[in-house]
Amino acid sequence: MQFETLAIHDGQAPDPHTGSVTVPVYQTSTFGRDSLDHRSEFFYSRIGNPTRKALEATLALLENGKYGLAFASGVAATMAALQVLKPGDHIVACNDIYGGSYRIFEQLLRPWGVATTYTESESTDSYAACITPATKLIWIETPSNPLLQLSDIRSLASLAKERGILLAVDNTFASPYFQRPLELGADIVVHSTTKYLGGHSDVIGGAVITSNPALHTIIKNYQGAAGAIPGPWDCWLILRGLKTLKIRMKEHEANAIHLATLLEQHPAVERVFYPGLTSHPQHELAKEQMSGFGGMVTFALKGGLPAVEQLLAKIKLFVLADSLGGVESLISSPAKMTLWALSKEERERRKCTDNLVRLSIGLENAADLEADLLNALKP
């Protein structure tokens, strides 16, 4: 079956008791047992819940994986995926990385005895140069946050397999509609389901998908033991979002291409970062490993931070807010918002300059978004 059919039907059959065409919200903490000696599949919602099971099955299908696991947030999912490591292990991570992942690597894992080295670029050679005998995992975001750089998943999967290393991909920006890393050789896929998968800015969640049974066992055991699971209502909201993922992603992309092209031609703009533009240095790689370019656009203004502040003061339709992937358009300053916890030196090392603006392009009319941006960019 095709993607949109899987998103609507598989893992979400009508309820056998009532015929409900949507998965019921099993708002319960526990389940009755038939007897002292018999325990059914569901007995306590931290361990398993029918609504969560439906979500996990659908997530696995959309990423073309065997096992899906849902979590209370994207960072909870990230932390769960990292349970495949132990003290003394080493991670090679992409240089341009989500601030929450960076905090996990530096504030939680490093004191625990797991070190991380960050690449100089997204090239496979740069990852290879960072590998040590202790390296057990390569962690990438592609497209990355906020510079929308790409890593070659297939090439890195080959490198990882050759060295006996696992490859994990944060696929939040692309979504499984535009990119499926497991099909390209990755071992683990992570999502913040808060973003495009939920799609309506009304739920926090995360997910891990894999086809490796040993990895699934480790991560599922952590899920049950640590308990960072989404409630059944959160699972239902994400299931609802998944049903329209295809049509939303196509519209996000259409608006993003329109605005990225507009911004690239604007005299106030120094540079636009969007893999759908032919000027993007990895545009050909994007066409090779993605079926679309996504709805995130980052650009740099010529006037530095004062120009960013002026733009944010004048913008109307774009909401100044953290997060991304909802139906409404959002705008942010990576240096002052999503990466605020990093030192200025660390931000500069990662090329996250003060003149960057990140857009999460929503589903509004493209002409209205264009008019809002052009007005805000007026001197």
Could you walk me through the main structural features you see in this protein, from its secondary elements to its overall organization?
- The strands form 2 sheets. The protein has a 7-stranded mixed β-sheet with strand order 1-7-6-5-4-2-3, sandwiched between helices.
- The chain folds into 2 domains: 3-242, Aspartate Aminotransferase, domain 2; 246-376, Aspartate Aminotransferase, domain 1 (Alpha-Beta Complex), CATH 3.90.1150.10.
- The termini are far apart.
- It contains 14 helices and 12 strands.
- It has helices spanning 3-8, 50-62, 74-81, 99-112, 124-130, 153-163, 175-178, 213-226, 232-242, 245-264, 283-289, 304-314, 344-349, 366-376, and strands at residues 67-71, 90-93, 115-118, 135-141, 166-170, 188-191, 206-210, 269-273, 296-301, 319-320, 330-332, 356-360.
- The longest helix is centred in the last third of the chain and has 20 residues, at 245-264.
- The chain is globular and about 75 Å long.
- The protein is α/β, with parallel strands linked by helices and 379 residues long.
